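May I ask for a sample protein chain and its fold as tokens?
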Amino acid sequence: MTFRSSRRHCLLGGLGLAAAAIAPSAAFAQAFPSRPLRLAVGFAPGTGPDVVARTLGQRLGDLLQQPLVIENRAGAGGQIAAQFVAKSPPDGYTLLIADVSAISIAPAAFSRLGYDPVKELVAVSEVVRTDFILVVPNQSPARTVAEFAKLAAASREKTNFGTFGAGTPGHFGAEMFAEQAGFKVEPVHYRATGDAVSAIIAGDVQGAFVSTALATAQVKGGKMRALATTAPQRSPLLPEVPTFAESGFPKADFSAWFVLFVPAGTPPGVIATLNEQAIAAVRTPDVRRRLEEAGFSVLGTSQAEAARMVVDETAKWKKVVAATGFKGD
């Protein structure tokens, strides 16, 4: 064999080895997903976030043609689930449904988080949003927001507001409302959703901001009274409940969004696949109907739109948290 043919043989052999080395990763990207996925949610079964995760997850698994298991990692306002996914392999097989609490509020409210949402998580799509309802116990003398504010301002003691955990929208929403209405608030943080709901019904707290999804069943069931919604318009689920703007408090306009996340470093092609199928899942007529009946506004945004929204919300809530002076640790 001549030197030239030998060199050519080695070169082709090297190219063949390089192609062989590239082939598995290319095949992996094309084959995604090739095994079951899991979707973590930071709240207990039966809660609003769990409803989102299960409704989305069932259809998403169908579209991806793989089983998708829901994992409830409840606690710390969604932070436990967020940390779990942030530290998971970035291969697209471990997903997270997270709301504003664990992603945009927590970094400003807690100085020692076990994860960094900016560096360790990537938004795939904003799937739904929900607004909040100011609710009071049925035995409360307040029947309007104005009456509630007047009673709270006249009281010598702080007004107890139930929350679903420190650092949640309901926590800082109460702070924002109290500042606008001119009264002092005492947040009472509950570790479990059921405990907070029980406290409202029993009159252990004087008010609370709960999601439209949760409030609808409780209000229609006669368990508590709704005074106003933070949404820009009345909810079709509770059309008799006025907006805060109608009630004279136009600045009470916060909401909770739910975004599908993956660990940072997940291949772009995998993220693109998940985005495409997540959008298709929430826009499926049956899925949309179930989510809307549960009190959610269905979106399904692009990956770029979701990323921008998270950045904007993080800046917004950083200012809100700073204004209250709250530090969770």
About this structure: Residues 128 and 298 are 5 Å apart (CA to CA). The mean pLDDT is 90.
